Fold this protein.
Amino acid sequence: MKMEPTLAMSTGQVTAPQEQAFVNWLKSNGATVNQCVGLTHFEGMGRGAVALQDIQPDTLLFSLPRSILLTTSTSSLSSRVPLTTLTGWTPLILSLMYEYLRTLKWKPYFDLLPASFDSLMFWSEPELDQLKGSSVLDKVGKKEAELAYTGELLPFVGNHSSVLGNKEDYTLDLFHRCGSWILSRSFHVESANPDEDKPKGKRDEDSDSDDEEEEEREDVADVAMVPMADLLNARFGSDNARLFYEPSTLNMMSTASIPAGAQIFNTYADPPNSDLLRRYGHVDEENGADLVEIGLELVVGLVGGPEGSSLSEVEQSTRVEWLLELGVDDTFVLDKTHELPEELVSTIRTLLLDKAGFEKAQRKEMPPKPRLDSVSAKWAIAILDKRMEEYETSIEEDETLLSQTDLDPRRRMAIIVRHGEKRLLREARREVVGAFPSGAEEQEDGKKSKADKKRKSAADKGFSEGTKSKKAKQ
């Protein structure tokens, strides 16, 4: 079947002629685009691909030659300066900056990429404050990125000005823009091996559940900007297309029937709203992939602290190091199942062991089984309550705010993120309370006892100060 590119009218950030220039550029570089595929603007998601007519499963939507990918090796810069001396994502960011500033090869592609972003890297401090309590704030990485810019990229550009040109052209704004293009649009490109079966193309965010350290360790040489493929958006449970690798091409195939006028969604990992906001600057009103993280430090401080097993700092460190050596993660994740992670339960029970019990577990090289009982359930409830307290608003307050129609868009997205996380904590608590009501009662009694102590302390302080005042007047 002969495929000719046809475009839907765009209401996006650039004009239709620029879209047509992009498709012409694809075609001149050996790509083919099915006439059933167009580009248009989708509210809240930016530019995306649309079905211009009904599409059947297993239809080839477009085919891209590997030569059109933008990587550290396909950039003309790779043969002119020692990119391998740079670390992390800096080589790829610099390659994009150079191609953007100094060459015309990818200009039609760059013209179609966004110039402004709502991803967290571009939020102000007051805007980020709306996300207090969410662990996504620890993953923005703005300070680290700017340190790489000032400490590594700029000196490198200065040392190779004969190739790279004026250092002042390599601005921090362009650095963040190129970094955000990579974060939100790059793919891991598998090697061209004709003996391999057709594997699923993996966008860079396929490791969304991994932590930031794993992202930093990724081999940047395997990361590519893939024109056209990176225009397809993602939404939880909505994928209807998938990228496949061939020895010389990358092929986007439909995986389901797509009615005319519907958006074409690529198959990515289903990221939670926190990662959608961090990477892409948008959220889903309802996201079945939402999750909330509980740090090991919170668990140890609560269960192993004075109100728990009263472990010394040395004992706490010993048990934590032992658990980490056994492969227990330092972050526990709650998801839509509302079940407590087994590692969290094992950690609670490890911290509650007496000295002899812990030494026995060490000899067996095995932590306690992840089985809740009334005691560990009480501490699980306390952990969930403590984690909930890290947010500055309640679920009910968030719901009241979300009912307003005049909210600032960024504030609304932040509320949706934190509201989704808090709902997971609430539902997980309900599950534990339903299975161990006595644990909930003990936790409530503990709260009342602490409240009573606070009131008594305040009353005693007031009495003492009142007595001192009377004595002073005598």
